Amino acid sequence: VQLQASGGGLVQDGGSLRLSCVASGGTVSRACMGWFRQAPGKEREFVAAISWTGGTAYSADSVKGRFTVSRDNAKTTVYLQMNSLKPEDTAVYYCVLRQSAIYYWGPGTQVTVSS
Q1: pLDDT of residue 83
Q2: Of 44, 93, 47, 98, residue with least CA distance to 69
Q3: Cα separation of 29 and 15, whole Å?
Q4: Which residues of 73-112 are buried (b: 16+ CB within 10 A; e: fewer)?
Q5: Least crowded by CB within 10 Å, which of 25, 60, 66, 70?
Q6: Which of 101, 95, 80, 103 is nearest to 22 (CA)?
Q7: How many angstroms separate the first and last alpha carbons of the chain?
Q8: What span, in angstroms and rounded, lies between the C-alpha atoms of 23 and 95?
Q9: ∠59-65-66 over CA atoms, to 5°?
C-alpha cells in the first residue's frame, strides 16, 4: 500500500488548510488512517486518526477543536481539516495507515504557518 498526501503549504496565523491522503496499490481493508507531524528538532507526534468505519475519531489535545479528521466512503482517502492554525502547527505532516498491525507511511507534506 502506498500513501500520497497533498494540501500542505504556507498559511498565515489563524488560517486554514485541508490535507488529503490517498491509499493505493493494494487492498485496504479494516484499516485505521490518520496523521502524525514532526516539527524541526522535535519528535514525530500523533495528530489525529479515524477508525475503519469512520465512526470513531481521535485527536491530540493540542489540536482538539481546531482540526477534524475524516475519510471518504471508499475508505481509501483520509482528510485533515485544519482551522485556526498557529505557528506551532508548523511541521511536516505524515499520513499513516494501520492494517493488520502493519503501519504504512506517506512521504509527508509541509505545513508552514506564519505569524
Answers
A1: 98
A2: 47
A3: 34
A4: eebbbbbbebeebeeebbbbbbbbbebeeeebebebbebe
A5: 25
A6: 95
A7: 37
A8: 10
A9: 90
Q: Report, as an integer, the average pLDDT of 12-22.
A: 98
> 27 or 35: which carries more pLDDT confidence?
35
Place of cell 489525529: 48
| Cell numbers found for residue 76 | 481509501
**pLDDT for 32-86, tens place per residue?**
999 999 999 999 999 999 999 889 999 999 999 999 999 998 889 999 999 999 9
Percent of residues, the chain, with pLDDT higher than 90: 90
What residues are paired with 95 via a beta bridge? 35
Dist CA 90 CA 35 (whole Å): 14
State the pairing for strand pair 57-59/77-82. unpaired
